[in-house]
Amino acid sequence: MIDLATENVMPLAQAAKLIPSTRTPGKRLNACTIWRWATRGCKGTKLETLKTPGGLVTSQEAVQRFLEKLTAGEASESRTTKQRQRDIDRAERELSAVGI
Protein backbone atom coordinates (compact mmCIF):
# COMPACT_ATOMS: atom_id res chain seq x y z
CA MET A 1 0.00 0.00 0.00
CA ILE A 2 1.28 3.44 -0.88
CA ASP A 3 2.09 5.63 2.12
CA LEU A 4 1.65 9.31 1.29
CA ALA A 5 3.83 10.35 4.21
CA THR A 6 6.91 8.45 3.13
CA GLU A 7 6.64 7.66 -0.60
CA ASN A 8 7.30 9.82 -3.66
CA VAL A 9 3.80 10.03 -5.24
CA MET A 10 3.43 10.92 -8.93
CA PRO A 11 0.90 10.73 -11.77
CA LEU A 12 1.00 7.58 -13.91
CA ALA A 13 2.41 9.53 -16.87
CA GLN A 14 5.40 10.57 -14.76
CA ALA A 15 5.89 6.97 -13.57
CA ALA A 16 6.19 5.90 -17.22
CA LYS A 17 9.31 8.07 -17.47
CA LEU A 18 11.03 6.01 -14.75
CA ILE A 19 11.15 2.80 -16.78
CA PRO A 20 13.07 2.53 -20.07
CA SER A 21 11.45 0.54 -22.86
CA THR A 22 13.10 -2.81 -23.50
CA ARG A 23 11.51 -3.13 -26.94
CA THR A 24 12.79 0.18 -28.25
CA PRO A 25 16.08 1.16 -26.60
CA GLY A 26 16.32 4.84 -25.79
CA LYS A 27 12.55 5.30 -25.55
CA ARG A 28 10.29 5.35 -22.52
CA LEU A 29 7.22 3.31 -21.79
CA ASN A 30 3.91 4.75 -22.86
CA ALA A 31 1.72 6.06 -20.03
CA CYS A 32 -1.00 3.68 -21.23
CA THR A 33 1.25 0.76 -20.27
CA ILE A 34 1.47 2.04 -16.70
CA TRP A 35 -2.30 2.56 -16.64
CA ARG A 36 -2.82 -1.03 -17.85
CA TRP A 37 -0.50 -2.36 -15.14
CA ALA A 38 -2.50 -0.41 -12.55
CA THR A 39 -5.95 -1.48 -13.75
CA ARG A 40 -5.48 -4.95 -15.25
CA GLY A 41 -2.12 -5.95 -13.93
CA CYS A 42 0.67 -7.94 -15.51
CA LYS A 43 1.03 -11.68 -14.91
CA GLY A 44 -1.35 -11.50 -11.97
CA THR A 45 0.24 -8.52 -10.23
CA LYS A 46 -1.18 -5.00 -10.24
CA LEU A 47 0.73 -1.78 -9.79
CA GLU A 48 -0.30 -0.10 -6.55
CA THR A 49 -2.19 3.17 -7.05
CA LEU A 50 -4.23 5.72 -5.16
CA LYS A 51 -7.33 7.33 -6.60
CA THR A 52 -7.33 11.13 -6.36
CA PRO A 53 -9.74 13.73 -7.73
CA GLY A 54 -7.18 14.35 -10.47
CA GLY A 55 -6.83 10.68 -11.42
CA LEU A 56 -4.72 7.70 -10.43
CA VAL A 57 -1.30 8.20 -8.88
CA THR A 58 1.41 5.77 -7.95
CA SER A 59 4.82 6.08 -6.31
CA GLN A 60 8.38 5.37 -7.27
CA GLU A 61 8.47 2.82 -4.47
CA ALA A 62 5.30 1.11 -5.75
CA VAL A 63 6.84 0.83 -9.22
CA GLN A 64 9.93 -0.70 -7.62
CA ARG A 65 7.83 -3.25 -5.68
CA PHE A 66 5.82 -4.10 -8.81
CA LEU A 67 8.94 -4.74 -10.90
CA GLU A 68 10.57 -6.75 -8.09
CA LYS A 69 7.50 -9.03 -7.91
CA LEU A 70 7.64 -9.59 -11.66
CA THR A 71 11.37 -10.24 -11.53
CA ALA A 72 11.08 -12.67 -8.62
CA GLY A 73 8.41 -14.63 -10.44
CA GLU A 74 5.85 -14.22 -7.67
CA ALA A 75 3.30 -13.03 -10.21
CA SER A 76 3.60 -16.14 -12.36
CA GLU A 77 2.27 -18.31 -9.52
CA SER A 78 -0.98 -16.41 -9.11
CA ARG A 79 -3.83 -16.73 -11.57
CA THR A 80 -6.31 -14.15 -12.73
CA THR A 81 -10.02 -14.63 -12.10
CA LYS A 82 -10.56 -15.56 -15.75
CA GLN A 83 -7.78 -18.16 -15.65
CA ARG A 84 -9.17 -19.65 -12.45
CA GLN A 85 -12.70 -19.83 -13.92
CA ARG A 86 -11.40 -21.51 -17.10
CA ASP A 87 -9.63 -24.13 -14.96
CA ILE A 88 -12.81 -24.74 -12.94
CA ASP A 89 -14.90 -25.10 -16.11
CA ARG A 90 -12.39 -27.53 -17.61
CA ALA A 91 -12.32 -29.63 -14.42
CA GLU A 92 -16.14 -29.75 -14.34
CA ARG A 93 -16.25 -30.91 -17.98
CA GLU A 94 -13.69 -33.63 -17.25
CA LEU A 95 -15.66 -34.81 -14.22
CA SER A 96 -18.89 -34.85 -16.22
CA ALA A 97 -17.22 -36.86 -18.95
CA VAL A 98 -16.34 -39.64 -16.51
CA GLY A 99 -19.76 -39.53 -14.82
CA ILE A 100 -18.87 -37.76 -11.60
Describe the structure.
- This protein is mainly alpha-helical and 100 residues long.
- The chain has helices at residues 12-16, 31-39, 60-72, 74-77, 81-97; strands at residues 9-11, 50-52, 55-59.
- The chain has a 3-stranded antiparallel beta sheet with strand order 1-3-2.
- The longest helix has 17 residues, at 81-97.
- The relative contact order is 0.16.
- The mean pLDDT is 89.
Number of helices: 5
Strands, total number:
3
- Cα distance, first to last residue? 44 Å
The pLDDT mean sits at 89
Proportion of strand residues: 5-15%
Low-pLDDT runs: none
User: Share of helix among residues?
Assistant: 40-55%
Rg measurement, Å:
18 Å
How are the strands of the biggest sheet laid out side by side?
A: 1-3-2
Q: Shape, please?
A: elongated
Q: Determine the structural class based on helices, strands and strand pairing.
A: mainly alpha
Largest sheet: 3 strands, antiparallel
In the residues, how many domains can be counted?
A: 1
SSE string: EHHEEHHH
Summarize the structure.
This protein has 100 residues and is mainly α. It contains five helices and three strands; from the N terminus they run E-H-H-E-E-H-H-H.
List the helices and strands and how they pair.
Layout: E1 9-11, H1 12-16, H2 31-39, E2 50-52, E3 55-59, H3 60-72, H4 74-77, H5 81-97
Antiparallel strand pairs: 1-3, 2-3
Characteristic key phrases:
11% strand; 100 residues; 3 strands; three-stranded antiparallel β-sheet; mainly alpha
